[in-house]
Amino acid sequence: MELQNRVALVTGASRGIGAALARQLREAGCLLVLCARNEEALRADADQADLVVAGDLLDAAFRAHLMRATLERFGRLDLLVNNAGVGHYRSSIEADSEEIRALWELNFFVPLELARLAVPHMLEQPQLPGARELGMVVNVSSIAGKVTLPWFTMYSASKYALCSWTEGLRMEYLGRGIRTLAVCPGYVKTEFQANALSGAPPTPLARSKDRFAITPEACARAIIRGIRGNKRTVVTPASNWALVVASRLLPGVVERRLAKINGSA
Ligand SMILES: NC(=O)c1ccc[n+]([C@@H]2O[C@H](COP(=O)([O-])OP(=O)(O)OC[C@H]3O[C@@H](n4cnc5c(N)ncnc54)[C@H](OP(=O)(O)O)[C@@H]3O)[C@@H](O)[C@H]2O)c1
Question: Is 160 a catalytic residue?
Answer without folding.
Answer: no
